[in-house]
Amino acid sequence: MKPIVLGTAGHIDHGKTTLIKALTGVDCDRLKEEKERGITIELGFTSLTLPSGLIVSIVDVPGHERFIHHMVAGVQGIDLVALVIAADEGIMPQTREHLDICRLLRVKKGLVVLSKIDLVEKEWVDLVQEEIGEFVKGTFLEGTPIVPLSAVTGEGIPRLLSALDRLAAEVEERSSEGIFRQPIDRVFTMKGFGTVVTGTIISGKVAAGDLLEILPQGMEAKVRGIQVHGRPVEMALAGMRAGINLQGIEKAAIERGNVLVAAKHLQVTDTLNAVFQLLPSATKPLRNRMRIRLHIGTAELIGRIILLDREEMKPGEEGYIQIRLEEPTVALPGDRFVLRTYSPLYTIGGGEILDAFPPRHRRRSLDLQNALQILEKGTEEEKLTLRLRSAGPPGLTFDELLMRTNAEPNRLKTWIDRLLAKGEIQAYVGEKVRYLDRETMDRLMKFILDYLKEFHRKNPLQPGAMAEEIKSKLPAKVDARLFAHLLSLLTGGKKIAVEREWVRLPSHRVTLKEDEKNLRERLLLRFQEAKLQPPTVKELTQGLGVSEGEIRPLLQVLVKEGHIVKVKDDLYFHRRAIDELSTQLTSFLSAHKEISPTQFKELTQVSRKFAIPLLEYFDGIKLTLRIGDKRVLRK
């Protein structure tokens, strides 16, 4: 059965709670203070079965201006609103403010209840109806039923039920796909059960046994049981008001404004980019860095406004803002919000979240304006590409994209597949599959090619740049898997060549000048003559009368050619000497099974200075295996 949530709205003492009692038999004023003062202070909850058999959840809100923050929390997530206006008083300040809040939160359907008609003459009822018709012009309530009634005599109640039935039939059923999210509007303890939280599920679904997380605290809890309309159920879906019994969590650890989500699926944020409308009724312009109260979900948070496209916003204007909060919250793109002044308290406007995790940007820059326009008005594929571009390397996983887009999984997969097919984004495998936009990928590959071009210019005798050296020059977020993917793309496109640890441009060749050829021959002769006791780089510079800068590139050339072997930094051996020693060591171990460092020194007739690096070299090439202080042949 389609879940529907009906909320009340209207000025204090216009009969909202009395009307709910007449409809359901339930008095939503449950607090002692509410009974004593005769006013609604807290949110009230009950349900109503309509003539068609459809069960509607009801949220009753307070009408006093001091409790507007409760009212905003109550109407978040409702499908229908009943704006209650007393016939003996007509339109009052909170009538206007409540309607503004419903408009800002994009409540789509509702009706007007003209209450207390038993207190006035019929002619007066007709006059108030005309006034209400003018009042709701240009709003979502224009043209909807205005139902005169008396909760005391019952007159008009059947007509109201019929009107609600018709409106409920027109409400679009919400999808239960996506990440489970339930802003909490009430927390209490049930004897024998423990902590119970209630709220309207705005996306996803939840089942008994699920592991959930309470944000922003980050506490995890298991679902012990679920109730909808006071009845136990195994699963609750988006659009339902549900009471969820949490296992292992104390009531004091949770409060209204917290959000119940699927564990490990969402992150908190303290910065939001949004499109915002300042109400025409606002008494002052909105100025940069103004302190405000943000109402989102069931939370009320303090923050400051940063105007992103102007210095001042005049009443009735719409523009882009950034909200910087003093404490973290849960918000996703598409979420509606209301802003109220910090002090004195009154509603100034509202809007829609465009980016819950905005990158750093310069205020009022052209790039920022273009990005915000795409996030507000672009296609879903344009928005997705922009979010990936903003994330930069190492891109985003599917789960991270779900959070950044607030999309249903199936729709998100469709958008990703289309963009992959067009080549607008690319995928690579890290711990999970990650996605990058083509612009970021192209920029990283261009950096590698430009780096190699400059490296070859400065180091013409080097066979190439070390792969690790190139990676160290890239942004820190480029991890080993992404770097390997970049090299693979460049190699596949024949833009680079990779040889062992060296990376080069395909056009690069080491070409020696005549004097370099002569020095190369002299170096090779030195190593050939030295056998297992080669000179260090410093000794070579002194013996040959050349600089270290001239020798090192030629040593790398000889290594690449295979004439000498680098055993460790500044220690090179002639290839023939290493090969002969390898044969000799293999023969010794075949006969004696093991060899100690002392025996190795006797075998080679070299000092410890050369013996230990040679033993470690043979371990490194997997000829030998070290066991304790001795070596054996690897099998």
Short description:
The protein is an alpha+beta fold and 635 residues long.
Query: What's the helix count?
Result: 19
The CATH topology of the largest domain is what? Rossmann fold
CA-to-CA gap between the ends?
69 Å
Task: Tell me the count of domains.
Answer: 5
Structural description of this entry:
With 635 residues, the chain is of the alpha+beta class. Helices cover 36% and strands 28% of the residues. Strands 7, 8, 9, 11, 12, 13, 15 and 16 form an eight-stranded antiparallel beta sheet that branches. It has a six-stranded mixed beta sheet with strand order 2-3-1-4-5-6, with helices on both faces. The longest helix is centred in the C-terminal third of the chain and has 21 residues.
Tag the structure with descriptive keywords:
single chain, 635 residues, alpha+beta, Rossmann fold, Elongation Factor Tu (Ef-tu), domain 3, eight-stranded antiparallel β-sheet, six-stranded mixed β-sheet, 19 helices, 34 strands, 28% strand
Summarize the SSE layout with pairings:
Blueprint: E1 4-9, H1 16-24, H2 32-37, E2 44-49, E3 55-60, H3 68-75, E4 80-86, H4 93-104, E5 109-115, H5 122-135, E6 146-148, H6 157-170, E7 181-183, E8 186-190, E9 194-200, E10 205-207, E11 211-215, E12 219-228, E13 231-233, E14 235-237, E15 241-247, E16 259-262, E17 269-278, E18 286-287, E19 291-296, E20 299-307, E21 312-313, E22 318-329, E23 336-341, E24 347-355, H7 366-377, H8 380-391, E25 396-397, H9 398-405, H10 409-422, E26 425-429, E27 433-437, H11 438-458, E28 465-466, H12 467-473, H13 480-492, E29 497-499, E30 502-504, H14 514-530, H15 537-544, H16 548-561, E31 564-568, E32 571-574, H17 575-592, H18 597-604, H19 608-620, E33 624-627, E34 630-633
Parallel strand pairs: 1-3, 1-4, 4-5, 5-6
Antiparallel strand pairs: 2-3, 7-16, 8-9, 9-15, 10-14, 11-12, 11-16, 12-13, 12-15, 17-22, 17-24, 18-21, 19-20, 19-23, 20-22, 23-24, 25-27, 26-27, 28-30, 29-30, 31-32, 33-34
Helix pairs in contact: 8-10, 14-16, 18-19
